Amino acid sequence: MSTTTATAPAAVVDRKAAGASARRRRLLIWLAIAVVASAVLYGVYALLFTGRSVSTDNAYVGAEVAQVTPLVGGPVAAVPAKETQVVHTGDPLVILDDADARIAVAQAEAALGQAERKVRGYAANDTALGGQVAARQADLARAQSDLVRARTDLDRRQNLQGSGAVSGEELTTARNQFSAAQAEVAQAQANLRAAQGQREANATLIEGAPLEQNPEVAAARARLDSAKLALSRTVIRAPMDGVVSKKSVQVGQQVQPGSPLMAVVPIEAAYVDANFKEVQLKKVRIGQPVTLTSDLYGKDVVFHGRVTGLSGGTGSAFSLIPAQNASGNWIKVVQRLPVRIALDPRELAQHPLRVGLSMKAKIDLTNAR
Q1: Which residue from 127, 164, 260, 262 has the highest number of Cβ atoms inside 10 Å of its Cβ?
Q2: Contact 221, 227 (CB under 8 A)
Q3: pTM exceeds cut of 0.70
Q4: Which residue ranges form the domains of the chain, and what is each CATH number?
Q5: Euclidean distance between CA atoms 81 and 237, whole angstroms
Q6: Beta-carbon count within 10 A of 338 CB
Q7: CA atoms within 13 A on the CB side of 2
Q8: What are the tens digits of pLDDT across the range 93-115?
């Protein structure tokens, strides 16, 4: 009786051990099946999808920032633009004191009026000089007539000298009159040439162009235009739509041409520079679509863009202290190349970005426009 009782528990233990061993085998089999299935699925995924895109989180928002600088110097009278203010093209940003510029415009206007009167005087002188030329021509004609008469008288007396009808004194007088007539003609010719020269010199000042195109008038008008341009530049306007940033100008400050006053950031024309590793760029082409997310809006807001170009060099190539790869202690480092990505303007209008914000970019390598 006791032998039968002792054998039963041992059989039960053996059955339980056998069952546990069978469960472990089944578990190991299923685990092996799961591992193999996962490997197969990963292999299929890698075969179908790996290499179809490249991504990076080393990407930042950029824009063609406009530096606002004055083209003329002067004291600042007003600063309508404020930091972070949204401005549009043509909005006044800084207003300079224009008192000196207005005086310069008034002086240039007076100089233009004086030049116009001077040129009109040239035209009046031409009429007067024309009268002088006509008078000198009349004087020459009269002198030539007197010369003909003097020559006739001299010839007559010389012909009568042999017969004794003309005294020596009369002949000498005739000769003197002839010489005087020759001198009068020479003087009249000289006076005519002088009058003609004066008229020609005056004509060169007005010839070939109306009053408005006269060189002296044109030069005076150019100085007036320059003065008006300088006056208009006392109001410094926004060169584009954007947001005012880095404002460093205050009322009363004396500014000089070229000194930076502020920047205008065109956030509606923002782009992304994504710094991809060089090993990721083999299949990247211009026109490929890109999806992007920003740390500002999170994954719920997805931006869409296109690759517009690749930089001409890596970031290290344009650094202030380029890497000395030829040195003996050189260590290879994977380089990154900036890829310019244009964003959808409509998405930017709905979710504005700011320069310098971090982005995540993913380029679809299977599609290119």
Answers
A1: 262
A2: no
A3: no
A4: 52-81+238-369 (2.40.30.170), 100-230 (1.10.287.620)
A5: 10
A6: 22
A7: 0
A8: 999 999 999 999 999 999 999 98
